[in-house]
Records
---
Amino acid sequence: MKDSSYTFLICEKFCDYYKPGREEDVCGGYFFIKNFLTHRELDSLIKVFSLNEEKMLEEKLNFLCNQCDFRADGCDFYAGKSSTPCGGYIILSRLYCQIYS
Ligand code: SF4
């Protein structure tokens, strides 16, 4: 189940696939962020590391996708049909990019 404070930061701001009203659907990126960061910490990281910028990590974040219910038949990025991952994936990819480059 989604939490509106995370949904605003992750899905509404970063995810091209977000559909309001489907609050029971949680992807791997959302699940990982919600488990490890408070929404205030996430909000701060987005601002401090300028995560609205376009950069992305080259390597795939398999640890996110491997725990995602959409991986099997609901994610075009995972299936290689799209270059755009979900919002949680984008946030973490940009964060790793900022930290490790
Ligand atoms: S990119 Fe796709 S498979 Fe990976 S975490 Fe996001 S929705 Fe799930």
---
Amino acid sequence: MDDNPLLDLSGLPRFGEIRPEHVQPAVERLLAENRAALADLLAAPEPPSFTRLVLTLERLGHRLARVWSPVSHLNGVASSPALREAYNHCLPLLSEYTTELGQNQALCSAMQHIERTDTTLDASQRMLVAQALRDFRLAGVDLPPERQQRFAQLMQELSMLQATFEQNVLDATDSWRHHATRTEEVAGLPESTLRRAAQAAQARGQDGWLFGLDAPTYVAVMTHADHRPLREHFYRGWVTRASDQRSDESALDNSRVIERILACRHEAAGLLGFDNYAELSLARKMAGSTAEVLEFLEALATRCRPQAARELAELEALAGGPLAAWDVGYWAEKLREQRFALSDEQLRPWFPVPRVLAGMFGIAERLYRLRVRRIDGVACWHPSVEYFAVEDGDGSSIGGFFVDLYARAGKRTGAWMDECVVRAALGEDVSHPVAYLVCNFTPPEDGQPSLLGHQDVVTLFHEFGHTLHHLLTRVDYPSLAGINGVPWDAVELPSQFFENYAWLDETLPLISGHHETGAPLPADLLGRLRASRAFHAGLQTLRQLEFALFDFRLHAGYEPAVGSRVDAVLAEVRNDMAVVSAPEWNRFAHSFSHIFGGGYAAGYYSYKWAEVLAADAFAAFEEAGAFHDETARRFRESILAVGGSRDAMEAFVAFRGRRPDASALLRQSGIAA
Ligand SMILES: [Zn+2]
């Protein structure tokens, strides 16, 4: 038992040694220890003090998070049936513990006592207590016992349902294959996509090309395949994942899972006194009310829709006829090539991964006076993963991060930053923050580095923006450090802010260099890339707004007697705002992991909300200079360092000197004009 690597919290997780059979014993032991520690805490005769109560709670939560982090991370990036089973087994145990803690009346009273009596607390300590009290309320601490029990049941069921949703999407993605044998069928596809597909076919003793539905392949087909039926086929594969439209895989159909998730969320919100789950979601966010969110989304859509319609008309003129959903990306790429003489494939040779990474780290180093360096010999979960340490300008250690960039089987699609270790300074208990930065780029092959499209580069900057937020925190309490305690509609500020640095005249030469010659991106190519930034921003923005409005209306308008109405709500949203029509068999909701598998339920709007903040924050750098010392220092101090220890609006005002204004976003997207 004592050699269980998950229980060794002395350094980085021992990734080389963690096995599925370690998971359950580690989690059970830690939960038992935490429960015992809580009982001791509450049994003590003296009245609760901040140091004893709050710091103990922080310490217990921190330890549990550290043990669980590598498990949930491995389940996402190196899944196996045994690991998944162990993970699934622990979810209800964790959910039970979380609810038990949140509904503990004695703990809540002790916290209220501190809030009332301790006049020595500083601002972040007061925030810690206030958030804890809010979370007690949202865990149902005030409810009568039978309702508390029902709430706990719902939370357990939800954690399982969300995991099932995610696993169905992963399995449905991994199981899909398309075998092509005719050259005309694969015309237009990039070299690297074809090579990988040919290798996959060979590995199975087949000729031609065997395609999977991994994100790089899907995007390549939708953008480049000249053969229209191939695009339609892939589109159908993608938007029917884990749905009733896959008759051969009915076990992976998420229809009922979605139905139950929405019902459980609605019931849980009702138990806490909210009219619907959207209201409950907003209790932890920057936005004030459901009406405010709906107005925000609808107003933006109204601003964008005419431009999106113009952009689509432009594409249809080029294509010579009406376009289906699987044509838009293809013709947009054609128009982009025509207008800017620029294609993603043409840019790739200038963005080899090592160059982009080094350049990106250099930008962060210059902006925040840091030092990032690779550390060899750190145990990882895959040979392609690397670890980097970060030091501050004065040489003091800040923390580190793992980088896992490439798509492979058993790895969840998408890109994300997750916490490995959260910063903590709880008395003698000090931890430096560590992050996981995960993407799904085309893997390197034949000794050649992976070559990124510029959109990939932007994705990488986005996730590194989250990583910096996680690492540069100065908050001592894990519940408020880094991204913790930050409302979700503000948490995308640092990530979207940092995306800007993938687009600048002064930064593009730093992150580009031809993979064979090392030559920097030629000036005319750089200029055309810059000019293409706002290309078809109307269509892209409208698509994001469509997702956001669908998510929000679905949760805000749910009625138990009627059920989820997923298709109807989607049809209404599309009818109100979409300019590209989707086929009747589109089931994109069935793989909409953000809202059914992850934490963005009634919160997908957060991306746009935070984009307003990010664009406005970056406008301060446009005014002062992209590397302006004082502005960067203020951004680090007022936004990145404070985590959730300060009200999000207050933090923004501290940086910008005023409240946020949407005009910077519209201007940067070329929509205002
Ligand atoms: Zn993000």
